[in-house]
Amino acid sequence: MKKDKLFKKYLFFMLCSALVVGAATFYFHVSDIKKNTTTIIIDHNTKEITAPASTSASKTTSKKIPKATKTTSLPNKSHTATQTEAATEFIFLDINSASSEELMKLHGIGAVTAEEIVRYRIENDRFDNIEEIMNVKGIGEKVFEEIREHIYVIDPIYETPTEIVTNEEITEPDSETSLTLEELAPIDINTADAEILAMLPHVDEEIAGKIIEFREKNSGFKNEYELLMIDGLSRSEVSEIIEYIEIK
């Protein structure tokens, strides 16, 4: 009987010990799995990936693993757009309507010169062409060459020099003097001027003047033979002159 009791106690003790050992083994196995789990941390500020190394029960270490993909810093879009716009801005102004503030954007044009441009435009109604801006005080050829590609006027006006022909330059005597005596004949001695009369034979400038003086005093020649009354003309000379004259 005593042996049976001792055997039962021993068997019970062994079962309890086996349960304790099994429980302890299971606990440490689960704990070890949790401790070996790797956690990856992404740091957005440094653009790196931090991964703890395999841990043990006594010591935990970590190391930084470079990110697989290459990262580059992106420029500020608004700042870049502003710089691009400033670099590509092309000034093109109508100097007949631009304000003084707009004119100051032109190279070499300050506040004083801009006001002078506006004042000139008001006093002269408008700029007829861009070259006229050189009439403004403070703008010479050098400044004009620098701004000419940036200014314009609507319907520019350029004065074209024209030759003015007066009535004196197209008088009948001028056209007649290019003709010969034979082409002009017969010449009316009551209307011909001194230059035409001087084309007659034996008539020079002096005789032509006497012929004009005579017809003015006598209200014109009544017939050709009155030329005999002109001092300096002989009968034979008058006979030659009569061939080329007439009286109307």
What this model shows, in words?
This protein has a 3-stranded antiparallel beta sheet with strand order 1-2-3, with no helix packed on it. Strand 1 and strand 2 (48-52) form a beta hairpin. Helix content is 42%, strand content 8%. By secondary structure, it is mainly α. Among the domains are: 90-152, DNA polymerase, domain 1 (Orthogonal Bundle); 178-246, Orthogonal Bundle (DNA polymerase, domain 1). The protein is built from 10 helices and 7 strands. It starts with a helix and ends with a strand. 9% of the residues are buried.
Distance between the termini: 193 Å
Listing every helix as H and every strand as E from the N terminus to the C terminus, the arrangement reads HEEEHEHHHEHHEHHHE
Helicity, as a percent range: 40-55%
Instruction: Give the overall shape, derived from the CA principal axes.
Output: rod-shaped
- Computed CA radius of gyration, to the nearest angstrom: 61 Å
What is the CATH class of the domain at 178-246? Answer: Mainly Alpha
User: The biggest beta sheet, please?
Assistant: 3 strands, antiparallel
Overall pLDDT level: 75
Which structural class do the helices and strands define? mainly alpha
Widest beta sheet: strand line-up: 1-2-3
If you consult CATH, what is the topology of the domain at 178-246?
Answer: DNA polymerase, domain 1
Short description:
The chain has about 250 residues and is mainly alpha-helical. About 40% of the residues lie in helices and about 10% in strands.
